[in-house]
Fold this protein.
Amino acid sequence: MSEVISHHRLMVVGARPGDAQKQVFAPYDRSVIATVDATNGDAVEAALTTAHKLFRSRDSWLSKPKRIEILSRAAEIMKGQIEQLAVDAAREGGKPLIDSRIETIRAISSVEACVEELKHAAGEIIPMNVNAASANRFAATTLEPIGVVVAVSAFNHPLNLIAHQVAPAVATGCPVIVKPSEDTPLSCIRFVEILREAGLPEEWCQVTVTESRDVATALVTDPRVGFFSFIGSPGVGWSLRSQLAPGSRCALEHGGAAPVIVGPDADLSEIVPPLLKGGMYHAGQVCVSVQRIFAHESLARTLAEALADGAEKLIVGDPTRADTEVGPLIRPREVARVHEWVTEASDRGAEILSGGEPMDHNCYGPTVLYDPPDDVRMSRQEVFGPVICVYPYDDMDEAIERANSLPFAFQASVFTKDIDRAMRVYSRLDASAVMINDHTAFRVDWMPFAGLRQSGLGVGGIPHTMHDMQIQKMMVLRSPEL
């Protein structure tokens, strides 16, 4: 890895950097790769003042053609920098280069999806002249920005998550203040720089890497915030939601412990590769990662052993190498936590079929556990690590009940060649999306993506986020000629 340490200055209009800086570490070897000016309370106030003033000045709003032009140009700039963007994301976030390249392409697609939605999104005609009260009237709605957007993001997709939060705000005409994870701010900073290169005036998108949680809370809970977009842990998300100013809207994306139901007729040669990928992708640090597989007892052991065999063959190591398949966890304490959970499950009777031990350079061995007890943390909470659990069952309805027993509901899946079995599982699983014969982590950026119950609030995905960031403003026109 390069030893160059870059410094990134404060990206808040009219604010001076304070004395504090944040260091950015490469999770693989914990080397310092960059420093970033930390945002203090004065800088947060400056950012909010700038954004709110911009929103209140309608003459300053960017026209739809201008927003389309900026986003289209940004996508073209990104296409010319795919490899560098991918390497930078892999280096700061630990996602292997092969997957970071895909993330970069998805981020470009996310920006382009905003442009397409802008070209087709419109208000609606409200029926009038249908009774005496509505006679001689015409009513229609137009779309307007909801206000200042504050976006707080997570580390695990450092480029595409930012694209999902910031690009819709730009598209809908909302001034946006984005707070990336302090573990992975560099991809966010580069994305905002690209938007500015593409013609976005700097006051329309500002970046804050806050110096403390109190400063971040002050940013989110300010009454000038029109919409709060959050991607991160449930504890932080729900706490911030409870502190929002009256009138602030929000969307929260948390995580879960994604369940998979495997029927007795499933073809193991077909299902092992997607299940292994869905569980070990980005070392399991994905909010819909395959975690709990409920497999019919006739094939559960064979499936678990096949997954373990595949896990042992995965190349674990430096995320910037082209052949790496599983990279490090984001912080050393996460390695310790995952190992604590694995040890607890093993001590309580789970069988470790692969992995189960920390590795060098902040990595954890890709782990497959067979039949952990239902009451250990590995079975009840989101592990956010490279661990797949396989549980045998003899009654499918009982497996569905176990899958539904947690306070999370996000994406799930079922593997079977029986259409009736697939439909029964689909209709009975508590989930916002059920993949049939695919892993739980499948996603394209225009589809709805929603955590239910403790897994989140609202619906993600480019067009759905744009919908949340706009209001429908109705006009009623009265004329005797209507």
About this structure: The chain has a mean pLDDT of 96. The first helix runs from residue 41 to 56. Residues 223 and 245 are 5 Å apart (CA to CA). The first strand starts at residue 6 and ends at 8.
